[in-house]
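Known limitations

Structure tokens in this collection are predictions and should be treated as such. Users comparing against experimental data should check residue numbering before alignment. To illustrate the layout, the record for 1-acylglycerol-3-phosphate O-acyltransferase is reproduced below. The input appears on top and the generated tokens appear beneath it.
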Amino acid sequence: MIILRSILFNLVFYTNLIVQMIVLTPIYFLVPRKTAWFVPKNWVRSNHWLMEKIVGTTFEIEGLDNVPKGAYIFAPKHQSFWDAYALLPWLDDPFYILKRELTWIPLFGWYIVKQRMVPVNRAARGKAMTEVMERTKREMATGRQLIIYPEGTRRPPGAPPEYKYGIARLYRDLQVPVVPVAMHPGLFWPRRKFLRFPGHFKVRVLPPIEAGLDPDAFLARLVEVTEAASDELLVETVRANPHLPLPPTAKQRLRELGAA
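Generated tokens:
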């Protein structure tokens, strides 16, 4: 049954993306940029509904009162394609620093350009990277929220942390708070797999780390608070969903926590 539901969800998920992008594109490009956010945010909400109805997966968000007003860096754990889009409706005017090749994709790339995402040539050095930072500062100055995944790439639930120093440099240069976010969507939407598993999980938005710390002290603090919350949620999520097939990294971490 899980296989059938997963196949159906994947088909409907991408059909929903294509249909909404085509049908709502004229509206998206006619309205002002910030107003146009309702199109991708509506797509996200519809995906949450589809995942609940087809797969049986639900979630809740704790700590939304920790989100500050105005500009900040939003720093979630990254385990799944789910967390690449799922929290957009709860952010006012977010943006990403992303590889420039994404802007070349027909239609999708036009959406990115309209929302003033910051493209980066990963092979670039020197002046090009300086321009990326200047562009990022301009966007933050308008009160936007930069979404950064501190570990850089998707990591399986329970995997040892591998935080990149890039977020510490951004924290130093942008001088804004950083909001850590812990969650385990990878238990329900595993990376590099088509299976989707039913159940319920929590997204925990943690208190912001205020601007002004030494970059090394900031990074240590970010790792400490995020990983502590991740461990708590891992134990809680597995106990609440005993049917889940756990990846080896989650099993190992549970053993280390004495909660196997």
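For this record: The chain has two domains: 1-55, 57-93+143-256. The first strand starts at residue 57 and ends at 62. Please report discrepancies through the issue tracker.
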